[in-house]
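Example 195.
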Amino acid sequence: MNADLETADSRAQRLKAATRASHDALDKRIMAGGIFADRDRFARFLRVQYRFHRSIDALYASPALQALLPDLAERRRLPQVASDLQDLGQALPEADIAPLPADLPLPAALGWLYVAEGSNLGGTVLYKLAAGLGLDRDFGARHLAAHPDGAARHWRAFTAALDAVALSPAQEQQAIDAADDAFRSVHAHVEREFA
Ligand code: HEM
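Predicted structure in complex with protoporphyrin IX containing FE:
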């Protein structure tokens, strides 16, 4: 266990510490893919996001998760990613990857949602860069646009709910493992799109 993990005092911070290396590797791989070079490169990134958000889509309809996160349904971003692809004249990727089941155990579901929600924060950086391609919240970069309340505030509302869930140490480890699985899955989508 690294020092960050031992000293992190909230679940969100522990998830961040535990997945830092996965995030950094993913961030570097995506930027190395030159996604802001032109709209076709950016569309590859959109296909990565589409595959990821499609794989987790069932979670947003889970009653157990909705009870913990009342605004969960509004946090769903698959429709915006689909619109971004359509804006750029791109077909939606085939449904060739098995999605997560709606009844995924709660700790694992929280780990996957942590990654999806956290990607909104980094998304604000990508949103600004997408402006260079003429893309914004109305065209092509809808899914990266910050929530009207502000990305940081929206994130804090999520992490407050995440931190409030009672989990045993074993369940907490399941959440961490699931977050790592989520990052790995996105990395696999990137390797496929940018091969
Ligand atoms: C080139 C691509 C990416 C860049 C440049 C990037 C950058 C960032 C930055 C700067 C933050 C911190 C924002 C803040 O604290 O205000 C962040 C957070 C985060 N990003 Fe990324 N990101 C990228 C891709 C992704 C992807 C594809 C995912 C997952 C699908 C992801 C998941 C996360 C998560 C979970 C956090 C929250 C970390 C935490 O505070 O707990 N990121 N990202």
